[in-house]
Design a protein that fits this description.
single chain
Amino acid sequence: MKIAISVTGNDLSAEIDPRFGRARGFLFVDDDAEGFEYAANPNIDASGGAGIQTSQMVVDRGTEAVITGNVGPNAYRVLEAAGVKVFTGASGKADEVLAEYKSGKLTAAGSATVGEKFGMGPSGVGGPGMGRGGGGRGRGAGGRGMGGGRW
């Protein structure tokens, strides 16, 4: 069985990346064989749809299970439709989590664990967000609507 693990580094000693769609990369491990393959996530800086695109990348590699910290609703739907089991709540080092998986200590998620846009970075006052200006609050033009006038 081929397993994809979201990670912050490129080997089994790497920490689990808590994000799925915008994870730094993935370790692809075949639990029937020794070794692994690392793939950087090309969707880490996507302006939108990162979860869907990352899910498709994982599915295209023949993955049957995903181990990650969190997964959003769009990514979960793609993975579920492809028959990929999703294990969430993972933290720590990839080799430790892989051992837990192999010993049957992980439980498959029944749904998404976070809402849409979870991995897009902090927003609010002082947070950079991923939008255009306005601190990620969608208020790059002053936030007064289309008229711009005051009552």
